[in-house]
Predict the 3D structure of the following.
Amino acid sequence: MRVLLVEDEARLAETIVRGLALERFVVSVAATGPEGIERALHEDFDVIILDIMLPGASGYQVLRAIRTRDVRTPVLMLTAKDGDHEVADALDLGADDYLSKPFSFVVLTARLRALLRRRTPQQQTILQAGDLALDPARRTVYRGDVEIGLTPREFGLLEYLMSRKEIVVTKAEILHNVWDAHYDGPENVVEVYVGYLRRKIDVPFGRSSIETRRGVGYVLSESG
């Protein structure tokens, strides 16, 4: 699951990123309100964690801006302790849930997964390609009856490829959607992680679901 965290407290943001990475979430961070608006409007995320107190534009303004532009991504607001009025205002503006600081990571991850499960029926819950199945809410991957353990980055890459099965995606598209819009490292990191995935989801099962299209990118086949 791709998460946009809009939080200006660097230490808290780093803690959240580290904790969610262990739960197989891929987290991108925006440190200001305007950056949060920009990224929410132009990038695809499964959920947004939004603090209220932000430089440049408050969490309320961010929420209002993205809902006005019809961005329906679930939003979890971070509020001050005992901030009943903050909670009411956030929910009125279109927030889907809230969490008061300080909070437990167990509760945070549970709330995020609950938001994913509550997505509209039109949104596919389990991604399927042949006998390969990926459940974004439970963060699990199965080939038939065999569960496959993946790192957060491997999971994010497979989720992206499965959501676009039979469509050739470029390395640049993968980097933008699975790594970060601001990633400026070498593109061959994609090749490395595709190799990791193949060794876990294909090789042990005698499959070749991820195809390389030379000079273009990669495609995951419908048959899995």
In short: Helices lie at 10-22, 33-42, 59-68, 84-93, 105-117, 152-163, 171-179, 188-202. Residues 188-202 form the longest helix (15 residues). The first strand starts at residue 2 and ends at 6.
